[in-house]
Amino acid sequence: MDTKEITDTPPPTPQPTQAEQKRAARGATRPGDRIFLGLSRGSGILLLVIMAAIAGFLTYRASIAISKDDANFFTAFEWNTGVVPPRFGIAVLVFGTIVSSIVAMVIAVPIAVAIALFLTHYAPRKLSGPIAYVIDLLAAVPSIVYGLWGALVLVPNMNGLYGWLDDYLGWTGIFSWQGGAPRSMLTVGILLAIMILPIITNVSREVFRQVPQMHEEAALALGATRWEVIRMAVIPFGRSGVISASMLGLGRALGETMAVATVLSPTFDIQASLLDPGGGTFAQNIASKFSEAGDIGRDALIASGLVLFVITLLVNGGARAIIARRKEYSGANA
Amino acid sequence: MKLQRKNRRALALGAIAVSGALALTACGSDDTSNGGGATGGATAAAGNIKCDDAKGQLLADGSSAQKNAIDAWVKQFTQACGVQINYKGSGSGAGITAFTNGQVAFAGSDSALKPEEVTASKKVCTGGQAIDLPMVGGPIAVGFNVSGVDKLTLDSATLAKIFDSKITNWNDPAIAKLNPGVKLPSLKIQPFHRSDESGTTDNFTKYLIATAKKDFPYEGGKAWQAKGGQSASGSSGVAQQVKETNGAIGYFELSYAKDGIKPISLDTGAAAPVEATVDNATKAIGEAQVVGTGKDLALKLNYNTTADGAYPMVLVTYEIACDKGNKADTLAATKAFLRYVASEDGQKILAENDYAPIPADIIAKVRTTIEGLS
């Protein structure tokens, strides 16, 4: 909150005690401080250099491919790099990446917040510990394992849900179902939601635990019920933390590769309905096309990777802007 | 004290996780050598392999379609000659790139070299160039899953319309006409194609384009181009989806047409519909012409054949090596291995693995060419 305390030298006191001398040393420019300053500044610069190098490499290779592209790179609904001249475009991939991530966020964020609130404010302590462990373990499961589970368990069991959605919400167009195998954006979104749930839950739980006891006690003293305490004290305090937790999850959902490649039935056209198979995401497309792609094919995939890189940067930048605006609440992060 | 108990609980959880992981990996490391499918007869044949002075280690890369065949050959060859051969099977494109970069002794490819690839190969083949040697044939099966239907005959025009989403129901008159006496249900057709780029797609669409250009107006290539349909990754992925989905139809290598997936018979205009079998594929490859110049043995398949019992929906995969200027330290081993692969024993193993042997007159040319490699 107040960074001055750490960086500035404290005002000199006439008769410093030993403890005060130590505290003063923290701000002074002793060798250790200078080394640490150099190390941390160096790391910061190194990070920027690496990012710039990645961007440079992607841009260079992408420009090779795009200059040869016979179709419009941003609007074409096809990916055919083996023919002369090559024709490829990312319209389907942008749509699929964003839609699957939105579905995942819509499902995961409310559930994650609910779990975090339950663990911090409702569950008995004996229960909340083990549940937190299990959630930690879930976060460590590799994505291909989720993919296999999705393909072998989730997909074959989705027919009931799909039929129900089609019966009651089919009129919206978004939830109409032609009876294809349920390997669609909705299934991908559900799988992604399960995958990003642990990370959002864990960070949110940490944030909710940081809510000052005083805030809650004050609310209770004013006669608030437990729900009102959560609504008026806990959630406003934790909001920016929950947003950054969600962004961590969103980042994972945008870039998820193997699970999507295993579960989705990728095609190069856009389905208006979430329930019809088809579509694709950037990462899935790169994974499934890379091995058989020729030189131009690889450069084209790298060009699509550059777009994903830019989208991710924009999303993260946007999230930081939102958090910065809510800084006054943040005790736990930002 | 309390902290210690917490630690112990964490430790116990960790132990469960670790032992669980160990149990899982133990399952995963099962010996997969039976996948090669080499039988007793083939093992006996190992005695006939001529090793010459083959030694050292061979690196190779390329088509995943012929990976199982290569595995079976390598098993025999390594037993006889002690040469380690490491074939990666990461795809035709990757294999040719690795070859033109000089990283592998030979490459496998589902399609013959393009002119620019031949040009690129001159860098690594001192004084020579890369050539195609047809070694493995394979029927592409079209499998279907329609409840109540056991046998199905289709011709190329109908196939093209189905895979281009122009015929969308199984009780379509065009299908009924080809299958008199078969009760076709009113069921939506769900055509499955490959989502990854694939030599199988390339060869399947080549067949449709050659025989039904009007109904399949696409350029062809490794990436799927026709409209609609669903997709899955790899031949195994497509086969899996066909098996799970009622009303599905999809194409894959013959070896994946098992466990209840029924392949269609192809109406080629011959006296009777032709089934997808190894023998019928060899018969169709026999109609092919060698179109490669010099030592190159690239084949042009006759997709429009109407010969009885010839199944023209096939793919031929090549081994690619230098005609001159192979690396001195791998030349002997490469020649010995290719010689074995093209030999009668080598070709015999193919049929045991659902691949089609190359017909006699073509493989004879391959053998002569191999002897001339330098």
TrEMBL record, chain A:
Membrane topology: Multi-pass membrane protein
GO molecular function: phosphate transmembrane transporter activity
Membrane-spanning segments: 44-66, 86-119, 131-155, 185-208, 300-319
Cellular compartments per GO CC: plasma membrane
Subcellular localization, as worded in the UniProt entry: Cell membrane
CDD domains attached to this UniProt entry: TM_PBP2
Record flagged with keyword Ubl conjugation: no
Coiled coil: none
Protein name: Phosphate transport system permease protein
Organism: Streptomyces lincolnensis
From TrEMBL, chain B:
GO cellular component: ATP-binding cassette (ABC) transporter complex
Keywords recorded for this protein, A-Z: Phosphate transport, Transport
Stored Gene3D superfamilies: Periplasmic binding protein-like II
A Gene Ontology biological process term: phosphate ion transmembrane transport
Record SUPFAM superfamilies: Periplasmic binding protein-like II (SSF53850)
A Pfam match: PBP_like_2
GO molecular-function term, one example from the UniProt record: phosphate ion binding
Cross-referenced InterPro entries: ABC_phos-bd_PstS, PBP_domain, Phosphate-bind_PstS
Family stated for the protein in its record: Belongs to the PstS family.
Name this polypeptide is given: Phosphate-binding protein
PROSITE patterns: PROKAR_LIPOPROTEIN
